[in-house]
Hints:
Elements: H1 3-8, H2 19-25, E1 34-40, E2 46-52, H3 54-63, E3 67-70, E4 75-78, E5 87-94, E6 101-107, E7 122-125, E8 128-131, H4 139-143
Parallel strand pairs: 1-6
Antiparallel strand pairs: 1-2, 3-4, 5-6, 7-8
Amino acid sequence: MTDTFKRLEGASLDSRYPLGEILDAIRFNDDGLIPAIAQQHDSGEVLMMAWMNREALEETLATGRVCYWSRSKGKLWRKGESSGQQQHLRSAALDCDGDTLLMQVDQTGPACHSGRRSCFYVSLEGEDARITSAPLIDPEALYGKR
């Protein structure tokens, strides 16, 4: 844990710190990434987890439109740029270690590339895995044939 986040443990309610100082203290992994969890702001539904580098996080904070780092494409990925299913940031918070980001978002349509509202639709139940939701939109309608 960085000294910054250790110091924040004792911070009083409504203390303020320069954003740059906090961004400098984030514990990005060896690839320069941090896990970013997107949660629907009004329902609490966990929609997805993706990765952000510092540039994606700064863009998200500056524009209010959620931007991730695509590990498969090796570039910034603005949620909804091909599907139209955007995420708009309502708030963002780091965990106590500065190594995970939780974002409250307003999601347009499905968050998952499968066309489902949430990426978390495979429930592990005893000896089985059960699909808990159907696609809201056919993925081919969102992205075309892959």
